[in-house]
Predict the 3D structure of the following.
Amino acid sequence: MTHRISVIGTGYLGATHAACMVELGHEVIGIDVDPAKIKRLADGDLPFYEPGLPELLRRSLATGRLSFTSDPAEVAERADVHFLCVGTPQRPGSNAADLRYVDAAIDSLIPHLRRPALIVGKSTVPVGTAQALAARIGATAPAGDGVEIAWNPEFLREGFAVKDSLEPDRLVFGVASAQAEATLRAVYADVIARPTPVVISDLPTAELVKVAANSFLATKISFINAMAELCETTGADVTVLSEALSHDSRIGGQFLRPGLGFGGGCLPKDIRAFMARAGELGVDQALTFLREVDAINQRRRARTVDLAREELGGSLDGQVVTVLGAAFKPESDDVRDSPALDVAASIHEQGAQVRVYDPQAMANARARFPMLTYAESVTAACADADLVLHLTEWAEFRALDPVELGKVVRQRKVVDGRNVLDVAAWRAAGWTYRALGRP
Ligand code: UDX
């Protein structure tokens, strides 16, 4: 059955969700406060890089069931299920989440809600947010208690957003009524039929599932990176350690890849916001370990800078350093809290001439770090380099021929921040190969 759906906030999450809802057969209207973004999306032009999404967006527009607007009155008129997909970034000067976009989205929509509707939160929010919003909506919407709230956290990964939306590992519906559950089951009927496990919960549990999942993933990465620190002082090899652990089916190999650690718009800010919320609730002790998870992650960045300096004889001043990778991970142009750019900026501050290349994230990197130099290709970035740092594991970098690259650099020195280059091949081509957590 076709539902009339709105998607509030058409950034990364919202744009993906809107197109996927059309793919599931629904009629969708997207709304955003940024008119430029709305115009581009309506023209079938995706404002960010995500494999497969441009095609899906254009296909969705061609059905005539996807439109965009800046007018909340139109959204209230044309939809009965409203998905809230706005960002919840880290609040400046604090660890807590900044809920201003959630509040603004709700405040602009509710005065127009004159008939029963379901508002479904997808944004990652501090536990307790949904219940507070429910009270506010009930008190101020013209339709009163006819407007209900549910929480349906999103687990999509950048680079796999379409697949993760249409074929998720699970669906979580935080609901306060059987009616809300029935509506969500109907909206996601095709996904549920795949089959996909559905977990029904109350509102706070659904909010917690998201931050708990991201905290667990961050902990797993920091665990293996803590082991890397041990390996560095004992001469052990963390990649072999990780492989051995991964064969234990209770542990598994995912999110156990040692290296420069996690970044992006989710993991770092989500664990910090979770700690901040626990503090407000008086249970900060329960999450003290996340402070360590964050600290281990930051230390990997510092260690990479130290390794670079060591490789260059103790000083970075005046050296030419190539940084391969700017995005926080491959298959993304997102540079939010990017470990690669963090390292590049530190090395620049220590006097090196840093040249960055990334297959997709150049424009975003340039806007965020205009003081760095950007090259148009790997070869241009590596010309006369004293040191090459491999910091985001794009397939293009893994496939590099160390013999050919060896001909353009000044010194054959490489630091592999992601532990994926073929060590034997690089060493055979005369490179000094260093990596995190390995002898
Ligand atoms: C994450 C969650 O995976 C997703 O479920 C949630 O909805 C949003 O946050 P994303 O931020 O897209 O998704 O990136 P993810 O693939 O999880 O990677 C996060 C970071 O961890 C990247 O910087 C990546 O390089 C790093 N990472 C990942 C490691 O350092 N080691 C690993 O083994 C795995």
Summary: The radius of gyration is 23 Å. The chain has three domains: 4-201, 211-294, 301-435. The chain is about 45% helix and 15% strand.
